[in-house]
């Protein structure tokens, strides 16, 4: 799976940007979308206009960590992995028996967006299993991205020189556009348009970037670790049922 978002939709952390990266644009002349298509013939690309694009393939599936895609009410979601407590989550969100993991993630997001207040960290923490997902809400131009606590699914992110946020399950795809400005997506974390990167395991603590250094001694993006000495404000803004969660977190 692959997603590229404009910085107006998903602003990448400054620590991801390496001073040694090449001047490559992920979106110019459809560069990265075309590369993904060349590497994975038969893949599907979804154009999100100025916000970016999504792409996925259905061949060479890992039966233990399958890739899924769905779009519902202008919400697009790429999901890879397996959720163990599907039956419980279907009941929690009032879904029918045919709902799969990607539909559960979309419904969880819609609950956050439309019915808050409910901590986003708790929503992701309620997903028990091995997973990574990328969600984009075209109605509010909002992203919701997460990976499980163990990093069970290969998941990488980076930034190109124009500030586009690039995410994929293939490290080489990310490196093609981001050069040295990339890293594994932080374990146990989620990213939102308005809130940036947070830990769902330790939501009250800040995350601090730790520079990654490659074999040649050059900075290669950054990893993010929970800073046990710093704490976020614990108050969650309460919003009405008609309010958009994505603007309050």
Written account of the structure:
It is a single chain. By secondary structure, this protein is of the alpha+beta class. It is globular and about 50 Å long. The chain has helices at about 30-40, 85-95, 100-115, 120-125, 170-180; strands at about 1-5, 45, 50-55, 65-70, 75-85, 130-135, 140-145, 155-160, 165-170, 180-185, 190, 195-200, 205-215, 220-230. The protein is built from 5 helices and 14 strands.
Write the layout of secondary structure elements.
Blueprint lengths: L1 E4 L25 H9 L4 E4 L4 E5 L10 E6 L2 E9 L2 H8 L7 H15 L4 H6 L3 E9 L4 E6 L8 E4 L5 E4 L2 H8 L3 E3 L4 E4 L3 E4 L5 E9 L5 E13 L18
Antiparallel strand pairs: 1-3, 1-9, 2-3, 4-5, 5-6, 6-7, 7-11, 8-9, 8-10, 11-12, 13-14
From the structure above, extract its key features:
six-stranded antiparallel β-sheet; globular; 249 residues; alpha+beta; 14 strands
Write a concise synopsis of the structure shown.
This protein has 249 residues and is α+β, with helices and mostly antiparallel strands. Helices cover 18% and strands 34% of the residues.
Shape: globular
Rg result: 17 Å
Helix content: 10-25%
Q: State the low-pLDDT regions, or none.
A: 234-243
Largest beta sheet: what is the strand line-up? 2-3-1-9-8-10
By DSSP, the count of extended strands is 14
> What is the number of helical segments per DSSP (H or I, 4+ residues)?
5
What is the residue-mean pLDDT, rounded to a whole number? 87
Distance between the termini: 26 Å
The biggest sheet amounts to: 6 strands, antiparallel
Strand content: 25-35%
Oligomer state of the chains in this structure: single chain
Order of helices and strands: EHEEEEHHHEEEEHEEEEE
The assigned structural class equals alpha+beta
């Amino acid at each position: 799976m692959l997603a590229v978002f404009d910085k107006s939709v998903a602003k990448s952390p400054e620590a991801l940007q390496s001073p040694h990266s090449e001047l490559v644009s992920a979106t110019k002349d459809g560069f990265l979308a075309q590369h993904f298509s060349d590497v994975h013939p038969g893949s599907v690309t979804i154009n999100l206009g100025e916000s970016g694009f999504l792409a996925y393939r259905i061949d060479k599936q890992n039966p233990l960590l399958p890739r899924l895609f769905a779009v519902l009410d202008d919400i697009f979601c790429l999901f890879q992995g397996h959720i163990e407590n599907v039956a419980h989550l279907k009941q929690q969100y009032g879904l029918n028996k045919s709902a799969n993991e990607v539909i559960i993630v979309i419904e969880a997001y819609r609950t956050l967006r439309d019915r808050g207040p409910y901590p986003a960290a708790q929503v992701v923490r309620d997903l028990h299993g091995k997973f990574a997902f990328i969600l984009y809400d075209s109605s509010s131009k909002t992203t919701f991205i997460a990976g499980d606590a163990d990093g069970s699914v290969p998941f990488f992110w980076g930034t190109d020189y124009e500030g586009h946020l690039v995410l994929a399950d293939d490290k080489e795809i990310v490196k093609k556009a981001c050069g040295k400005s990339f890293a594994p997506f932080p374990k146990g974390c989620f990213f939102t348009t308005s809130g940036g990167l947070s830990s769902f395991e330790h939501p009250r603590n800040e995350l601090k970037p730790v520079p990654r250094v490659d074999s040649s001694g050059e900075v290669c993006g950054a990893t993010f670790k929970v800073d046990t000495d710093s704490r976020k404000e614990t108050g969650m803004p309460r919003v009405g049922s008609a309010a958009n969660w994505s603007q309050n977190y």
